[in-house]
Amino acid sequence: MLLRHTPKEVTERSALTINPAKTCQPVGAMYAALGIHGCLPHSHGSQGCYAYHRSALTRHFKEPVIAATSAFTEGSSVFGGQANLLQAIDNIFTVYNPDIIAVHTTCLSETIGDDIPQIINKAKAEGKVPDGKYVIHANTPSYVGSHVTGFSTMTRAMVDYFAESSGHKTKTINLIPGYSEPSDMEEIRRIASLMGIQTIMFPDTSKVLNGPLTGKYRMFPEGGVTIPELRQAGSSMGTVALGALASGAAAKALDAKCKVPCEILDLPMGLHGTDMYVDILRRIAGVNVPDSLTLERGQLVDVISDMHQYFYGKKVALAGDPDQLLAIARFLVSIDMIPVYMVTGTPAGKKFEKTLREVVKDAPCEVKIQMPGDMFLLHQWIKQSPVDLLIGNSYLKYIAKDEDIPLVRHGFPIFDRVGHSYFPTMGYKGGLRFLEKILDAILDRKDRDATDINMELVM
Ligand code: SF4
Predict the structure, then answer these.
(1) Cβ-count burial of 422 within 10 angstroms (0-12 exposed, 13-18 middle, 19+ buried)?
(2) pLDDT value at position 2?
(3) Is residue 15 part of a domain?
(4) How many CA atoms lie within 13 A of 13 on its CB side?
């Protein structure tokens, strides 16, 4: 009973977060930067921040996560980090030879007020950035936002620094995948490719953070969007941004800068979410949906229909990122499950909360949503009235254990299981996997609790 001190009664808290349902902005910025081919993310701050950001990503993906740091000392904390960053840029290009360095700030460098574009310009003027190499930046102070806003800001920086219009539109569609797994990015692209559509996906961490073990270490793995592709994104015929909070800013910036029209959708989870994604691709590209995709859709419909009795009426508590909460809530409601409690640590705004409340407006019981909220509050709600299932990251395992509730791990971070970076939960096939995980959790519990008399072989 690790959380035995969590009281059932909820008291007003305005200046204290306990077990936040988020991580810090630079984690997301670092993750996005790893989705550029040949990129070395750089944390402009102290070594402690950088060690935390890298270890959070390494523990989640079980892969080496490369990054560099400005390694602030007491001196840089007082006088600013310009000298450290200039030295770092010089060292990184000399020693590691990346194509690009993506600098993100931290709480400390933001509090000091370091002007990163000015430092980058100084580095260029001093010849520290070799020809054909690039340094980009994103401001990611972590006393606001979360890993999702960090991801969003770095993704937008890719547009600000590189996208350019050639004057004529290509037949390519840009895909901005949101804060999703490498496996989901692969799946999103596979669906477009099944429809015969050329795409540029950015960022793209597939084959970066879910690559094979070959026996040879590659500091810059095969995957990632290339800089020429980021340039060409400004000439694409359209952009599909998945997840408004993580992808919307970059899509809008691309529209404003290069006149590439954008559609901002929910993450393509479940039947409805994937239908919306496929339909928008079909309309932008002017293509038909292939039979192979219709088959995958039909399989998902089949499983929903076959196993509906086990989904029906089950109460679920969710903790995660806003874009994920919205997509998962829609999926659960569509199969007659009830997302009764939802919390996210990421501030997503009133409009987003209103949209989420709209999704659950017909629920047959009270639904509690807190944005931003924490897992301590979620636990208190569960103590007052329990649920059948938890969905969220690894930190929910403590609530799951104490309250004896099955947990489906989803989102970030997942430190204690594998699979998320290899098997998608988006698209029709991903929907099947997500349902399989939910069913396994529910039916395993049913078997465990069955008596000798009502133990069922066929379910
Ligand atoms: S919250 Fe701020 S100080 Fe803490 S690790 Fe993140 S950037 Fe560093």
Answers:
(1) exposed
(2) 85
(3) no
(4) 14
Chain segment 34-74, per-residue pLDDT in tens? 999 999 999 999 999 999 999 999 999 999 999 999 999 99
d(CA 458, CA 438): 17
Tell me what percent of the residues of the chain surpass a pLDDT of 90.
Answer: 98
Average pLDDT over the chain, rounded to whole? 97
User: Which atom of ligand 1 has the smallest separation from the CA of 43?
Assistant: 7
Identify the domain containing residue 88 by its residue range: 25-157
- 83 and 142 assigned to the same domain: yes
For β-strands 198-201 and 172-176, DSSP reports them as parallel
Decide which of 157, 187, 213 is a domain's last residue.
Answer: 157
- Tell me the per-residue pLDDT of 72-115, one tens digit each, with 9 for 90 and over: 999 998 999 999 999 999 999 999 999 999 999 999 999 999 99
- Shared domain check, 97 and 61: yes
Q: Which of 142, 144, 146, 151 to mutate to test the pocket of ligand 1 (most atoms within 8 A of CB)?
A: 142
Domain boundary among 268, 295, 322: 295
Q: Does residue 178 have its Cβ closer than 6 Å to ligand 1? A: no
Looking at the fold, whether 386 and 425 belong to one and the same domain comes out as: yes
Quick one: 278 and 225 in the same domain? Answer: yes
The answer on 382 and 341 residing in a single domain is: yes
DSSP 454: T
Q: Point out the ligand 1 atom lying closest to the alpha carbon of residue 26.
A: 7
What token pair was written down for 386? 């329990």
- At 438-456, the pLDDT tens digits run 999 999 999 999 999 999 9
Secondary structure (DSSP) of 204-239: --TTTSS----SS--SS-S-SB-HHHHHHGGGSSEE
Mean pLDDT across the stretch 216-229? 96
- Residue 339 CA to ligand 1 center (angstroms) comes to 32
> Do residues 316 and 264 both lie within one domain?
no
Is the domain of 57 the same as that of 30? Answer: yes
Q: Give the residue, by CA position, lying nearest to ligand 1 atom 7.
A: 106
Is residue 3 one of the residues assigned to a domain?
Answer: no
- How many structural domains comprise the chain? 3
In short, whether 106's Cβ falls inside 6 Å of ligand 1 is yes
Q: Which of 17, 46, 49 to mutate to test the pocket of ligand 1 (most atoms within 8 A of CB)?
A: 49
pTM above 0.90, yes or no: yes
Q: Does 325 lie in the same domain as 208? A: no
Cα(422) to centroid of ligand 1, in Å?
29
